[in-house]
Design brief:
It is built from 12 helices and 22 strands. It is of the alpha/beta class and about 350 residues long. The protein folds into 2 domains: about 230 residues, 3-Layer(aba) Sandwich (Rossmann fold); about 120 residues.
Length: about 350
């Protein structure tokens, strides 16, 4: 069995690449075959804005990498091209390569879930990778629905206010850990690709048309349709990305009508990328306070949080940035006190706690 793990940063310089590099190195130490790709662009030597050095990804022989054609020329690792895919990026088509000589790589991978699924399939089924690592970011998280678990990298670059950072991260963790549907609900909903109002599992649902984004208009349409029906709606199923504003509108127009109803979403990521995690969680809490439930069709486990006390401090007099740090011990203690997944500082704790979590899923 193989596993695909996403590593997503909440902002630039939160330690995402450091986390990925540390996991990679430990996989090499344990001689576990690995594939590597990215959602979008990563691997630059120097941050474009701060001009501070950034960690790049060092890969060893036999690693399988999926990256854009022009990025291959920007790295120092030797490689053999196994396939030039039809997946387009601004830097050319994504190539699947096998590393023939160790060195640095620059990665630009697929930006759609279907594309990532293809890369994952090739790496695992055809090229026998035991672990596939997907480097990404919170603002381009959508394709991570194709992973088996996610590691979130956050830190002082997101905000130097530890209390605010903890509150946001706690909300993220709670959104990832929303309860899963039952087996019967999963069987009924898995074949639905439209917003649906469900009254009884033995009867056909009422299907609503929608685009790729669940917006405020659709929220109002759902409320209207729910009130028009003579039967009692038990489940509102939303497979689309749902924005924070739309969720607020849905709550507003449903008012006190949530009692005994379930709002079921396709996955947590469709919520998380819709807006501010704390605001979204507040809306979910309102639904539950009115007697409703929010559930997830496809769960994507949050495996760990990595925290980075570093941030680039800006000096307005010279218009330059310098490396600075918040209190590491306070950050770790505060995070661990309220988050029920491993919280790790890669620089001091090392990658072993992360790797043990990953290997347990193989």
């Amino acid at each position: 069995m193989s596993v695909t793990i996403g590593i997503a940063g909440t902002a630039k310089n939160t330690g995402k690449t450091t986390t990925t590099a540390a996991i990679l190195n430990e996989l090499y130490n344990q001689k576990i075959s690995v594939g590597l790709t990215s959602i979008g662009y990563d691997g630059e030597e120097v941050d474009n804005i701060t001009r501070l050095p950034k960690p790049r990804l060092f890969v060893k022989k036999d690693t399988v990498v999926a990256t854009a054609k022009k990025c291959l020329q920007a790295g120092s690792a030797g490689y053999d091209i196994l396939e030039v895919t039809d997946i387009l990026t601004p830097l050319g088509k994504v190539c699947i390569v096998k590393i023939t000589a160790e060195g640095m790589v620059v990665i630009t991978g697929p930006n759609k879930g279907t594309q990532l699924n293809y890369i994952k399939y090739r790496m695992i089924n055809d090229l026998k990778c035991k672990v596939v690592l997907v480097d990404g970011a919170l603002n381009r998280l959508a394709p991570m629905t194709e992973t088996d678990g996610i590691i979130i990298a956050t830190g002082a670059s997101r905000t130097t206010n530890i209390d605010d950072l903890v509150d946001e991260t706690k909300a993220l963790a709670e959104l990832f850990n929303l309860p899963a549907v039952s087996k019967d609900e999963s069987k009924y909903l898995s074949n639905l690709d439209k917003i649906a109002l469900i009254f009884d599992f033995n009867k056909e649902p009422v299907l609503l048309k929608y685009g790729s984004l669940f917006d405020s208009k659709i929220a109002r349409d759902i409320c209207k349709k729910t009130k028009e029906e003579n039967r009692t709606v038990k489940i509102i199923f939303v497979p689309a990305l749902i924005s924070e504003a739309a969720l607020k509108n849905l709550n507003k127009c449903m008012s006190e009508s949530w009692n005994g109803k379930d709002l079921i979403l396709k996955d947590s990521i469709k919520l998380i990328i819709g807006g501010n995690p704390e605001s979204i969680l507040m809306e979910i809490n309102k639904i539950e306070a009115e007697g409703g439930n929010v559930k997830i069709l496809k769960t994507i486990p949050l495996l760990a949080i990595t925290v980075n006390p570093f941030y680039p401090k800006y000096y307005s007099a010279s218009c330059t940035y310098e490396a600075d740090y918040i209190n590491r011990e306070k950050l770790l203690k505060s995070m661990r006190a309220c988050i029920n997944v491993p919280v790790i500082d890669i620089e001091s704790d090392g990658p072993l706690p992360l790797l043990e979590n990953i290997i347990s899923r193989i």
